[in-house]
Amino acid sequence: MISILLDTSVLVFCYATLWFAVSILLRRNDIADIAWGLGYLAISLFLVVTRPASGISLLILVLIAIWAIRLSGHIFLRNRKKTEDFRYRKWREEWGRNWIWRSFLQVFLLQGFFMLVISAPILVASHDHFAHPGVFAWLGTAVWMIGFFFQAVGDYQLARFIKTRKDREAVLRTGLWRYSRHPNYFGEILMWWGLFLIVLPLPYGWMAAVSPLTITWLLAFVSGVPMLEKRYENNPAYQAYKKRTNALFPWKPGN
Predict the structure, then answer these.
(1) Sign of the C-alpha dihedral, residues 35, 41, 43, 49?
(2) Domain range summary for the chain, segments of one domain joined by +
(3) CA Rg, the chain, in Å?
(4) pLDDT value of position 96
(5) Is the pLDDT of residue 227 over 80?
(6) 127-154 tens-digit pLDDT
(7) Across the chain, what does the average pLDDT equal?
(8) Are the C-beta atoms of 173 and 223 separated by less than 8 Å?
(9) Global confidence as pTM
(10) Assign residue 120 a region: left if phi > 0, alpha if psi is -120 to 50, beta otherwise?
(11) Residues 6+ apart with CB under 8 A from 53
(12) Residue 38: partners with Cβ closer than 8 Å, 6 or more residues away
């Protein structure tokens, strides 16, 4: 297991450094969002190619590939005609002359660190060469599919709304967004809990809990919900929506 962790750490460092170099050429750090999903695909492919692949590791590779290609493709199409995302632009302004090395450390290497932590189910699956799908694998896959539905449909509904709205202050309150202020984040969290369930019966499987716990913490309390909601703190329509609608877990809206 230690050799898997060390090899993956080297891969992630090289991967993060490569994307950092691209960000310098483009002068936009928000390509880190595109790199996020594809990084897990790189890890999964690397481990399947360099080690004997089990049924579980192949299942996880397929699920990761579906998620990563859709997510990174969605972000690329969303951002290709826009300026740098407001979060990264704000950091660049705050960092001033130190923006290059701080971008490397606080955007790309930090992202790489969390990528390594959250990839725990992929690493655990790679450790057991003889693991084949059982009850937990199919239960986890079902949970993953529900999460994928929430993320993919939520992203599609939001993209369509932004493209057709006439008022920039308008708030999406239909579809999945009627029941959750961030259904796409809820879906992301659910998918990683699903991957954890898949590897839970394997040796070191319980250690993979660090993956969904970390992504839940990040999206609910650090870089997901809080940062986006701060952007809309002066939007009366959003504040009214916030009072009626759960942040993550889908539920019937209040009065």
Answers:
(1) negative
(2) 1-130, 133-255
(3) 19
(4) 81
(5) yes
(6) 877 677 789 999 999 999 999 999 999 9
(7) 91
(8) no
(9) 0.91
(10) alpha
(11) 61, 129
(12) 68, 69, 72
